[in-house]
Amino acid sequence: MFKKKPTVKALSPLRSSDRRKTADAIIADYQLSPPSLPDDATADEKAAATAAHTTLRASLLPENAQSARFTTTHGPDLKPVSGTLYVGSHNGSEPRILWVKIEEKMYPTVYTLWQTTGIVPLLHTHGVVVEKLQGGADLMTPGLANGPPFPEKATKGSVVAIASREKPTVPVVVGVCLVDVSGVEHVHGAKGAAVQTVHWMGDELWAYSTSGKAGKTPPEELDGWRDRKTNVNEGPTGIEHLDLEDEEEDGGVPLDETTRPEPVTPYNNHVEGEEAKQEENGQTNRKEFTISEIDEAFRNAFLYGIHHHKTTHKSEPKFGLTFPISQSFVMSDLIQPFLPAFTPEEAAQLQIKKSSYKNLKKFIKSLDKQGVLKCKERDGHETAVVDIDFEDHTITDFRPYPIPKKETQASTNVGHGATAQSIASTDAGDPSVGQKLRITTYHRPKEKLANIFSSALSASGGLYTSAEIRPIITSYIESENLVSLTNKRLVQLNPALANAVFDGSSPLDKEVIAKGSVPRDALIDRIVASCSPFYAIVRNDASDTKTRSGAPPRIRITLETRSGNKKVTKISGLEAYFIPPQPLADELRKVCAGSTSVERLEGSSPRAPVMEIMVQGPQKDAVVKALEKRGVQRNWIETLDKTKGKKK
Predict the structure, then answer these.
(1) Residue 385 and residue 373: Cα distance in Å, rounded?
(2) How far apart are CA 27 and CA 570, in angstroms?
(3) What is the pLDDT at residue 252?
(4) Taking residues 390-416, what's their average pLDDT?
(5) In whole angstroms, what is the distance from residue 610 CA to residue 174 CA?
(6) What is the rounded distance in angstroms from the CA atom of residue 598 to the CA atom of residue 593?
(7) In the predicted model, is pLDDT for residue 116 greater than 70?
(8) Within a 13 Å sphere around the CA of 512, how many CA atoms are in the beta-carbon half?
(9) Residue range 102-131: average pLDDT?
């Protein structure tokens, strides 16, 4: 059904609760849960099981997941089919369709199977048969290879993956068993279809991209699918035999090696080598933070942020803080730089949504109840800090604790410093962070002004800055002896100026022509205004910047209300300023503690798409701050607030 392109509605971010609920449904449907813990399990065992479950959720549906409804047709009678697509990305890669839901059934795409191995039975067939399957054909029983026996879970109605014998560890087709494949004893001479093809590498699900890029090529091999001939969930590598207490099993990679990350296998989240990192930074070897420890970490980080301002801005009013303080500023400047996240694993755990507060608003209100600060609802959805009691005993008695160095924070991609320079250290993967931008405007004289600019055309190629136009016009006035004898600020009009600049189309033109003279500054302004505008956005003083016609574009920030009373912030127009949208969206997701999405701006050309970032909540201040560290000046930004009600 995905041989032809489906009609897909606009993507919208998945709420955290919906993402967890959907991921848990997938885990239940595909029987990916590990064995239940005994009643006498220790707290560490329970914490390890919870962490493994969270890791599996993220591998199936990452935190940046989005969803969209789709419609298409299926079969020779063009039967209408509708469902839901789930789009997401892992490790900052291009967002792709990870799951498709049809009639309450979830089907993984090849992108999910390449990322998370062992979640469905794996069947094999011959390479020439795979080519037929990738055209929409079903897998016939005689086409089954590497068996019998076949995986025990490949029963009638179950979802299976199919790989070729030439690349047995790389699934390229997803289908549904039409018969009990696990019970097939002979394939030679058998008749009928064994697997109905649902999706394959090369169809429109595989090709879908929010930025218009082509589908991704498959990896050469995936170790997680290796040696799974009989059942992908059986044997010592399957989740049924996973021992959460096994400390001797090898895993991870040496810290001094650079290798490509391997796909995530369900519940196989034991990574060796982080102990050395933690010991380097003076940390003990710990696996999981409890909820109470996460709560304490956020509270201490906030107190550390206030302590930092008190010690570094002693002479300034309110210690350099300007009230009211927005939620995004509290998170990005007063909390995140001071979280004790020494490794990416710890940074992934120290998230506000994993605390008992669940969101930043409740965290701020808890500090209000304790008397540390005073907060106030703003716009009905955001809680702003209006005052802080700097003499509260929790602040005066606070003692600093070790926090990661800036380079360590950069490795976690979570820690943000209190200044633009320290924030920039966390974005080594974003080439726009720290760039220097400059907008130069040019003017091209129209043909009727050729006599005035004739002496300068060959030298400047027909484009002039405002500063270059003034001496050219002054030189022309002097060469034609047009300076008034009674007032040097006035210029006498000659036929060339009168015809080229003042055509008599307005009352002002007629008045100037009647007087026969015009102030010099007014003449220069009129000539500049009559020229065709051009601009160039120069990055890092590059000499090969392309000049474009028209006025310089602005980055647009739009605040909207969606789904009743939920506010979102949209950002578009980044491409002209050399800012890649996806890294910026990833940063805003962490800074704003909310979901983000990137998709093509409605109405933009598919050949040269303009991407639009959407962030949950009113996040204008956080967006402007992120743009400023990418070289964008505030006067290059246009803000449109659609959330304010119309005045009656």
Answers:
(1) 7
(2) 33
(3) 37
(4) 69
(5) 32
(6) 16
(7) yes
(8) 25
(9) 89
pLDDT for the residue 457: 52
Other CB atoms within a 10 A radius of the CB of residue 1 amount to 20
Residues ≥6 apart with Cβ < 8 Å to 417: 337, 406, 409, 423, 425, 426
Tokens of 251: 């895993």
Q: At 138, list the tokens.
A: 């079903």
Kindly report the number of other CB atoms within 10 A of residue 570's CB atom: 18
Q: Up-side HSE of residue 37: CA atoms within 13 Å toward CB?
A: 16
Enumerate helices (H) and strands (E) in the chain, giving the number of each: 21, 24
For residue 261, pLDDT beyond 80: no
Strand partners, 441: 535
CB 89: neighbour CB atoms within 10 A? Answer: 20
- Cβ proximity of 380 and 617 under 8 Å: no
- Residues 64, 88 contacting (CB under 8 angstroms): yes
Report pLDDT digits (tens) over 606-631.
Answer: 777 889 999 988 899 999 999 999 99
Transcribe 28-39 into DSSP letters: HHTT-PPPPPPT
Q: Is 490 helix (H, G, I), strand (E, B) or coil?
A: strand
What is the residue whose two structure tokens read 């509270």? 299
Question: What confidence category does residue 300 fall into, taking pLDDT thresholds of 50, 70 and 90?
Answer: very high
Query: Do residues 404 and 425 make contact, with C-beta atoms less than 8 angstroms apart?
Result: no
Placement of tokens 């696996």 in the chain: 287
Where do we find the tokens 């609760």? 17
pLDDT of residue 294: 92
390-417 average pLDDT score = 67
The total number of residues shown for the chain amounts to 648
**pLDDT bucket at 305, cuts 50 / 70 / 90:** very high
Give Cβ neighbours of residue 123 (< 8 Å, ≥ 6 apart).
Answer: 139, 144, 146, 147, 150, 151, 154, 160, 161, 162, 163, 181, 195
State residue 398 phi and psi, 5-degree precision.
-65, 140
Nearest to 70 by CA among 26, 2, 6: 6
Report the SS3 class of residue 246: coil
**β-pair partners for 384:** 376
Q: Are strands 566-572 and 611-616 parallel, antiparallel or unpaired?
A: antiparallel
Average pLDDT of the chain to the nearest whole number: 80
573: pLDDT strictly greater than 90: yes
Q: Which residue has the higher pLDDT, 444 or 262?
A: 444
Position with higher pLDDT, 36 vs 70: 70
| C-alpha pair distances (Å), 118 with each of 30, 99, 161, 209, 240 | 10, 16, 10, 25, 12
DSSP 8-class letter at 295: H
Q: At what angle do helices 620-628 and 581-591 cross, to 10 degrees?
A: 130
Return the amino acid letter for 642.
Answer: K
What does residue 106 show for φ and ψ, rounded to 5 degrees?
A: -95, 130
Is 278's pLDDT higher than 50?
no
Q: Which residues contact 272 (CB under 8 A, 6 or more apart)?
A: 250, 251, 252
| Helix, strand or coil, per DSSP, at residue 233 | coil
Most confidently predicted of 166-180, 227-241, 632-646: 166-180
- Tell me what pLDDT residue 47 has: 82
